[in-house]
Amino acid sequence: QGLLMESGGGSVxxxxxxxxxxxxxxxxxxxxxxxxxxxxxxxxxDLVGERELVARLWSDGSISYGANAEGRFTxxxxxxxxxLYLQMKTLEPEDTSIYYCRTNCRGTVSWGQGTQVAVSx
Length: 121
What we know:
- By secondary structure, the protein is mainly beta.
- Helices cover 5% and strands 50% of the residues.
- The strands form two sheets. Strands 2, 4, 5, 6, 9, 10 and 11 form a seven-stranded mixed beta sheet that branches.
- Strand 7 (73-78) and strand 8 (83-88) form a beta hairpin.
- The termini are far apart.
């Protein structure tokens, strides 16, 4: 729907850091569940596997992290700017994926286009 715009992806070496941003509206950020998911891709950039949870901000303000993110990634938001941030540290080659912003607004799920993260060893 064009209401989710991811940015901040790139290529880094193992151990490095990246900060992802999901720009949306203040209304969505403050009233809906919103979070980051990721899906791995192969050599030809074909998506593989399933999308998995990285971190999620619930509408009550609580945060859930996937097992892949616990202790290394931090989710935060800027309510005024309408931006959801994902700070990623100590990146590993296994973190190489397309990272998607996802919202669930009263049962309606929307996805952004994704931003690519590639971590080399």
